[in-house]
Amino acid sequence: MMAKTVTLIDNQTGEKYDFPILEGTQGPDLIDIRTLYGKTGYFTFDPGYGATGACESKITYIDGDKGILQHRGYSIENLCDKSNFLEVAYLLLHGELPKQTEYAQFHAEIMESRLINEQLQFFFRGFRRDAHPMAILVGVVGALSSFYHGAFDLHSEENRLLCCRRLVAKLPTIVAMSYKYSIGQAMLYPREDYNYTDNFLYMMFGKPEHKFKMIPEVVSALDKIFILHADHEQNASTSTVRMAGSTGANPYAAVSSGISALWGPAHGGANEEVLNMLKSMGSVDDIPQYIKRAKDKDDPFRLMGFGHRVYKNFDPRANVLRQSCHEVLDALGMKEQPLLKLAMELERIALEDEYFIERKLFPNVDFYSGIILEAIGFPSYMFTPLFALARTAGWTAQWKEMHEDKTSRLCRPRQLYLGETAREYIPMEKR
Ligand code: SDX
């Protein structure tokens, strides 16, 4: 069967150029333009890479029009309903759901790797107490590389997996330590009688002198939030991890760069901004003025938690979180939580407004996650660190896949140059 191609006709010269079509197992086909410059002398122009495929991947599939999100073929709804975060992390890294023995080994390896070198505690002390925990995460995660000098043989699959497990295992410890540091409380060590998510809750909210009361509904809700944030195809922070990793930088440095990218309010920082927005709204009566501001092109304000570069129908994660939000608040006896009532009214008003309907701006994953996290007791400045904790599973899986992909190369985009053309230097006295 003839290979599928597209033909580009240069209307300046009448030249025709054929380019191969690459077909995926799901989703749109891609035009392979790797020979474009060599054949035509042209580059493509796609600020924000909205129409550009940067890599091959088998990890996550998103259909933005149908609101589909799958990890290795399993729907996010199915995984939230039946799996747990550590099993999803295994799935992202290995491509298949683990058998009993495989899961037991993975679980044991992660549990064994949760501690960080005692020296790292001194890194926290260099920060002001009111430092944003994302600043601490960027520093401490990047600094992890200084404790594993010898273990950067990126050509060894076993070593790549070891780095991935270390990062998945240590992020909860570092996130919890950054919180304890910010409130001046004793940092706690992981406990062998807890698993992944419950142990994180213990390290966050436990105290040395008290027996910790674990609430199963809270553990389940947080684990689901971690699953929902685990991976999301080639989003800004994942692309940053791939970009940094493509230079051969070690995975700790690459993930640290991903944490930096995630921090932005247009990306992972939105969950914290949703809470700040709801709190600044105060009451339902204030909603119309915020909707008005969100539409005003001269006002930089955006309705936080609404809109998405890919989802132009609904974010399936928001649907799962909406339900989970009600379950958690019911379990905590907070169903009359004013912020939830305000959020529900804001969602109703926005979804009936022509501006949002026309632009397909629906609630995204960040809209509900903040309300649940606040109800559990996380301060809003910890929301994005939690996102980073969960996304470390996806970042490491994507970083590992990039190193195993024979087509992957050093990332180096080009540009449309609009600056000065060549000119001679003018000595200072003649300017
Ligand atoms: C995440 O990529 C991923 O997968 C990300 C993520 C992941 O899991 O990794 O899903 C996580 O980042 C979720 C998104 C969290 N961000 C927010 O909630 C911040 C608020 N949202 C906006 O900043 C915005 O919607 C973006 C950045 C998310 C997407 O913006 P796009 O795709 O670049 O769309 P755009 O800016 O081109 O907007 C199209 C139109 C514009 O109006 P017009 O110029 O057509 O008149 O929609 C408007 C925008 O002004 N618009 C909004 C809006 N989002 C877009 N107007 C008001 N409020 C908003 N939130």
Q: Could you walk me through the main structural features you see in this protein, from its secondary elements to its overall organization?
A:
The protein is mainly α. Helices cover about 50% and strands about 5% of the residues. It contains 18 helices and six strands. It has helices at about 35-40, 75-80, 85-95, 100-110, 120-125, 135-145, 155-185, 195-205, 215-230, 235-245, 250-260, 270-280, 285-295, 315-330, 340-350, 355-360, 365-375, 385-405, and strands at about 5-10, 15-20, 30, 60-65, 70, 75. The strands form two sheets. It has a three-stranded antiparallel sheet with strand order 1-2-3. Helix 6 packs antiparallel against helix 11 and helix 9 (about 215-230) packs antiparallel against helix 14 (about 315-330). The longest helix is centred in the middle third of the chain and has 27 residues, at about 155-185. It starts with a strand and ends in a 27-residue tail after the last helix. The model has no long low-confidence stretch (mean pLDDT about 95). S-citryldethia Coenzyme A binds near residues 270, 307 and 365.
